[in-house]
Amino acid sequence: MTQPKTTKKDTRNEIDSLVEEFIKANGKIQQVDMGESGLVDGKYNTSHMGFSEPRKERTPLNHVVAAIQQRKGSKTPPQAPLKMNRKPKKKIIYDDFGEPLRWIWEE
């Protein structure tokens, strides 16, 4: 059987109970300043930021952008949809007792 999906409320309650158990077992919660946990020796950890390589020169593509813009501007507006000739439909007329009386053509 599959277990029911846990809700956010259940998760919050579980975390709160774990924190309470930690405090009851004489656990200490250390308060830190905002953003301090991201610092290594008082500085930001830059090893994972991706700025280790020098900046690369970009290839100019102005002519490609101009060609795309020109193609966009040269599009013809869409034509109005053609009106389809609807064929008349055959409809049956019933009497008060549900018996068919006659056929008529309806446009």
Task: Describe the 3D structure.
The strands form two sheets. Strands 1-2 form a two-stranded antiparallel sheet. Strands 3-4 form a two-stranded antiparallel ribbon. The chain is α+β, with helices and mostly antiparallel strands and 107 residues long. The protein has a domain at 1-49. The two termini are 58 Å apart. It is 27% helix and 16% strand. Strand 3 (89-94) and strand 4 form a beta hairpin.
Strand content: 15-25%
Helix % is: 25-40%
The radius of gyration is 37 Å
Q: If helices are DSSP runs of H or I spanning 4 or more residues, what is the number of helices?
A: 2
Q: Could you list the spans in which at least 5 consecutive residues all have pLDDT below 50?
A: none
DSSP strand tally: 4
**Average pLDDT reading:** 83
Please state the structural category.
Answer: alpha+beta
Largest sheet features? 2 strands, antiparallel
Shape: flat
Beginning-to-end CA distance, first to last residue = 58 Å
Physical arrangement of strands within the biggest beta sheet: 1-2
Element order: H for helix, E for strand: HEEHEE
List the topology elements:
Layout: H1 8-24, E1 39-40, E2 43-44, H2 62-73, E3 89-94, E4 100-106
Antiparallel strand pairs: 1-2, 3-4
How would you summarize what this structure contains?
This protein has 107 residues and is of the alpha+beta class.
Task: Give structural attributes.
107 residues, alpha+beta, two-stranded antiparallel ribbon, 27% helix, flat
